[in-house]
C-alpha cells in the first residue's frame, strides 16, 4: 500500500482533497469513482515525509481537544465514548489518528497517560506532565 495525496471532483463541481493509502493509482481512481468522484491529481508520498509534516499537533487543536474532553467527562461520558466522539469531529489528521490510537490503548487497559505518552513528540512536555499529575 502506498500513501497518496489527491484531488478529485464530482459531477456537481464539488472539489475534494484527500490523503490515504491505496494499492496503486488505479485503485485510488476506482475507489473515488465508487464514491461519485473523479480523480484530477494524485501524488505518491513517502511515509517519512508525511510523518515529519503532520506529526506535530498545533496548540489550538490541543486546547480545543482538552476543553471538549473535560466538558464531555463532566457531562457523564466515559473517556472511551468522549474520545470516540472527538476523533470523528477533529479537524487535524494527526490529532484524529492519535485519538483513535489512544482510545484503542485505553480499551486494552492502559492508563490515559501511558496511552498518550506514546505520542510525546506530538504534544508539549508541559501538557504531558499535566496529564501525568491527574
UniProtKB/TrEMBL annotation:
Naturally occurring in which organism (per UniProt): Clostridium pasteurianum BC1
Keyword Membrane attached: yes
Name the record gives this protein: Type II secretory pathway, component PulF
Domain Type II secretion system protein GspF: 65-133
Topology of the protein relative to the lipid bilayer: Multi-pass membrane protein
Annotated GO CC locations: plasma membrane
Entry-linked InterPro entries: GspF/PilC, T2SS_GspF_dom, T2SS_GspF_sf
Pfam families assigned to the protein according to its UniProt record, in alphabetical order: T2SSF
Localization terms from the record: Cell membrane
Entry similarity comment: Belongs to the GSP F family.
Record keywords: Cell membrane, Membrane, Transmembrane, Transmembrane helix
Amino acid at each position: 500500500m502506498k500513501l497518496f495525496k489527491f484531488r478529485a471532483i464530482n459531477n456537481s463541481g464539488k472539489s475534494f482533497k484527500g490523503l490515504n493509502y491505496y494499492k496503486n493509482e488505479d485503485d485510488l481512481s476506482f475507489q473515488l469513482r465508487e464514491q461519485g468522484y473523479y480523480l484530477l491529481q494524485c501524488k505518491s508520498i513517502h511515509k517519512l515525509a508525511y510523518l515529519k509534516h503532520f506529526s506535530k499537533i498545533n496548540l489550538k487543536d490541543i486546547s480545543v481537544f482538552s476543553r471538549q474532553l473535560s466538558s464531555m467527562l463532566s457531562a457523564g461520558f466515559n473517556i472511551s465514548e468522549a474520545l470516540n466522539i472527538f476523533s470523528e469531529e477533529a479537524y487535524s489528521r494527526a490529532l484524529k489518528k492519535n485519538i483513535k490510537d489512544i482510545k484503542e490503548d485505553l480499551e486494552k487497559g492502559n492508563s490515559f497517560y501511558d496511552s498518550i505518552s506514546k505520542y510525546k513528540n506530538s504534544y508539549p512536555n508541559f501538557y504531558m506532565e499535566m496529564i501525568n499529575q491527574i
